[in-house]
Design a protein that fits this description.
By secondary structure, the chain is mainly β. 3% of the residues lie in helices and 51% in strands. It has one domain (21-687, 698-808): Maltoporin, Chain A. The chain has five helices and 43 strands. The longest helix has 7 residues, at 85-91. The protein is globular and about 85 Å long. It is found in: Cell outer membrane.
């Protein structure tokens, strides 16, 4: 695969062009059964597969790319039963997820930095890209990750090649390519002891010499971990129905077309909390004069404990989403007699429509709390409607990219491209009861749209036998439109049920230009050992408030929020050692962000308060990370991935106050007479200082009594304590944990079938993906309040067993 080199010359970027997407399946995911000789003269020494990546939008050896990248291949994902994005997070220490009150508000963090907001008017900090097509909303990632061949986790700002929503990093996913031979079918069935099932089937291959087809369909369902005693159902589960297709057509020897439609319907019933602690004594919810809502009645039959899994809800909670899209990729390879011989011109077009509905039981109980809530006269409302949340989102995205790629195997290689994208979001939201203040009633609709044009270039220059430079630049122009329509709401601190009435806000169109870039230097000690250093910048667009906080006209006074900016420095070491039996990729990094966009609680001059968007002047993440593999013997492969991250707030003297805070003494610069707290020095939410994943696979020797290929695998992951919210509320701090998985597999028929089974969380170590401070507040007839707290268990917070069968024919 490599080009010729002069004696002693390192192989820097010498891979020949790979026209077929199937070559990307070489990325990562090695299992001992895949050990192979790398050339005909090699001895019978087991070796690791060569890992190639597409971080620079071309296929390159991992050791030749000056960037910290974690690669998960198909074998790795299959062995660890990867289905949803959280499964990828479990295997990549640089990633974490912030779990919100609703599934649609979950956010993705890279190196401790992510969009800590429940706002659709703000872009994510981590881009999710599938087959060169970007997701417009982070919530689109929290569904079934179907038919995946590999995942590349690109750490640090990636704005130059992947756009403005990758200011903290990017997760680049590739689905399986069309088979190179005749049409073949593969079926997979998965079942667990806690009633999760997955069924999928694929049909892939060549219809003719010039036409290929891949079809994939899947259905999954997991009932959930929490038992709703009210209707004897399960909560905090997920399920989906997915259909993917790929149709390729080689129109001429130089021109090929790939059409890829997709459909997904998913339902997630999170993120409901269960009560884990309550102060002793009887209290009354909302009003101490009405005993019908005592905590003993509200929590009847619930066995409160640290790991409680029982709830009482009279309304459903979750996110239902339907995603439809189409991708079109046209690639033209310039012929040999052309001035651009060896170059390729690629056009990538995408259309995507995401419709979703998020809903929630807003009081987390099954009694009609609105009936007993009182107005200023002390009389109960008598309203018997449960307070609920219902929000709909209609997101439409279209993109167009045109990319010119120079030949591989040259000392100077480059990519230049044009990019255009249009994204529109229409949002409606209804929460609570229009006559009960305590339900935080609001009813609004809002629109936002953005139009982006960009031109970019990236180059690699091997200017010496063992040295190379990488450089890239992107010019981005963005225009935004935004409007907010308050239909009705209740002022949150009004003494009576005072309706704010209808209000319209239309923002002036905002236009902004941004330039981002990167530069890197690589030095090869040998063809397989190198060091590098890089500097890069990132820029994310302005943000608008699309939440209930914008019901207050004071919010609009400081919109849009300024663009978020980043400056990053990274140094790394990569090596392929022991005759390609061991690899190590290590890096140290520091990235600083200014005008970081987040959500925080704000008080306004009319006395109301709400969660609105805010800018933090400066935050920082820095640390160390390493990925290693060691092929101890042909039958034994070990791996380890480590991340040490310090993600902190450098400067923010306008931080939010949390319940019980005693240092809210900083005057609010936007609202005279109100006070905030200095949150400088705080820890970024859901950013563990230490995170480690390590494991291995051992293939048993084959003999007459055991004629099939049999392997045993194990994986252990652990992380340290995390802060649950940027407010630094100590009640939201979550302890660290360690999870151990054990599995085995038997395969035969030359790969035609494989049976895998095992246990997840073998030692039954319980842990939370999210927690809730002041879950329900009860008042005593006299004395202080009775407080309670809750948790949201992770998918594998309790031990379960699984079995999986894959069959090809």
């Amino acid at each position: 695969m490599t080009g010729k080199n002069s004696p002693g010359m390192p192989r820097i970027g010498r891979l020949r062009p790979i026209a077929s997407a199937a070559a990307l399946l070489l990325v990562g995911g090695y299992s001992p059964a895949q050990a192979q000789q790398q050339d005909a003269t090699a001895t019978d020494q087991p070796k690791l597969e060569t890992v190639v990546v597409s971080a620079n939008r071309r296929i390159e050896k991992l050791e030749d790319v000056p960037a910290s990248i974690t690669v998960l291949g198909e074998e790795t994902m299959q062995r660890n039963n990867v289905r949803e994005f959280v499964d990828i997070v479990n295997l990549s220490p640089a990633l974490s997820v912030s779990v919100g009150t609703q599934v649609g508000t979950n956010s993705i963090n890279m190196r401790g930095i992510g969009t800590t907001s429940n706002n659709l008017g703000i872009e994510g900090d981590v881009a999710i890209i599938v087959d060169d097509l970007p997701y417009s909303q982070a919530q689109q990632a929290f569904k079934d990750m179907s038919d995946m061949a590999r995942v590349e986790v690109l750490k640090g700002p990636q704005s130059t090649l992947f756009g403005k929503s990758s200011i903290a990093g990017a997760v680049v996913m590739s689905t399986k390519p069309i088979g190179a031979g005749p049409m073949k079918t593969r079926v997979s069935v998965y079942d667990t002891s806690d009633h999760e099932y997955r069924v999928n089937a694929s049909l892939s291959g060549r219809l003719t010499d010039t036409v290929g087809l891949r079809l994939f369909a899947a259905k999954t369902n997991f009932p959930g971990l929490l038992h709703n005693l009210t209707n004897d159902s399960m909560q905090n589960g997920s399920g989906s129905k997915t259909f993917l297709a790929k149709l390729s057509w080689q129109l001429t020897p130089d021109l090929d077309v790939l059409l890829s439609p997709h459909f997904d319907h998913s339902l997630s019933t999170g993120n409901t909390p269960a009560v884990t602690y309550i102060d002793p004594g009887v209290g009354y919810l909302f009003n101490k004069n009405y005993t019908a809502l005592s905590n003993t009645a509200v929590l009847r039959d619930i066995h409160i404990s640290r790991w409680n899994r029982e709830i009482r809800n009279d309304s459903p909670s979750g996110l239902e989403s339907t995603d439809r899209g189409l991708g079109l990729r046209v690639n033209y390879a310039f012929p040999g007699d052309s001035p651009l011989a060896g170059h390729s011109l690629t056009s990538i077009t995408s259309l995507d429509n995401n419709l979703s509905n998020d809903f929630r039981d807003n009081d987390n109980i099954d009694l009609i709390s609105t009936f007993y809530q009182v107005d200023a006269s002390g009389k109960p409302s008598g309203i018997a409607d449960p307070p609920e949340i219902n929000g709909t989102t209609d997101s439409k995205t279209s993109t167009q990219e045109l990319r010119l790629t120079s030949p591989d195997g040259k000392p100077f290689r480059y990519i230049v491209g044009l990019w255009a994208a249009r994204n529109t979001v229409y949002r409606t939201y209804y929460r609570g009861n229009p006559f009960v203040k305590e339900t935080n009633f609001t009813n609004y609709d809002t629109n936002s749209g953005s139009l982006t044009h960009a031109v970019y270039a990236n180059s690699n220059w091997d200017f010496a036998d063992n040295q190379s430079l990488t450089a890239g630049v992107r010019f981005n122009r963005e225009s935004n439109d935004y409007s907010f329509h308050t239909i009705d709401s209740l002022s949150s601190t009004a003494p009576t049920n005072k309706h704010t009435g209808e209000y319209y806000y239309v923002a002036p169109q905002h236009k902004e230009n941004a330039v981002t870039g990167k530069v890197g230097y690589t030095y090869h000690f040998t063809p397989d050992v190198m060091v590098y250093g890089t500097a890069s910048t990132g820029s994310k667009g302005v943000a608008y408030d699309m939440t209930s906080g914008a019901n207050n006209p004071n919010v609009f006074a400081h919109l849009p929020l300024a663009s978020e900016k980043a400056n990053s420095y990274e140094a790394g070491f990569k090596a392929n050692l022991l005759n390609n039996r061991a690899t190590i990729n290590a890096a140290i990094f520091q990235t600083r962000f200014r005008d970081y966009q987040t959500s925080a609680t704000e008080r306004f001059s009319d006395g109301s308060q709400a969660s609105v968007l805010y800018s933090i002047p400066s935050i920082q993440t820095r640390g160390f990370e390493a990925d290693t593999q060691l092929l101890v013997a042909r039958a034994l492969l070990l791996n380890a991935n480590l991340a040490y991250t310090r993600a902190t707030v450098r400067s923010w003297d306008q931080g939010p106050c949390y319940s019980g805070a005693t240092d809210c003494t900083i005057p609010n610069r936007l609202v005279p007479g109100a006070f905030l707290r200095d949150a400088s020095g705080g820890t970024m939410p859901n950013a563990p200082k230490w995170k480690l994943s390590m494991g291995g696979e051992y293939t048993l020797p084959q003999f007459a009594a055991l004629p099939y290929a049999t392997a045993i695998n194990a994986q252990w992951r652990t992380q340290s304590t995390v802060m649950g919210a940027i407010s630094q509320d100590p009640s939201l701090r979550r302890p660290g944990y360690g999870i151990f998985d054990l599995g085995a597999s038997v395969s035969g028929g030359k790969g035609k079938w494989k049976l895998a089974f095992g246990a997840k969380n073998l030692f039954d170590h319980h842990y939370a993906s999210g927690n809730v401070g002041s879950f329900l507040n009860f008042k005593r007839a006299s004395g202080g309040d009775v407080k309670s707290y809750g948790w949201q268990p992770a998918r594998d917070a309790f031990r379960y067993t699984y079995v999986r069968l894959d069959v090809g024919f």
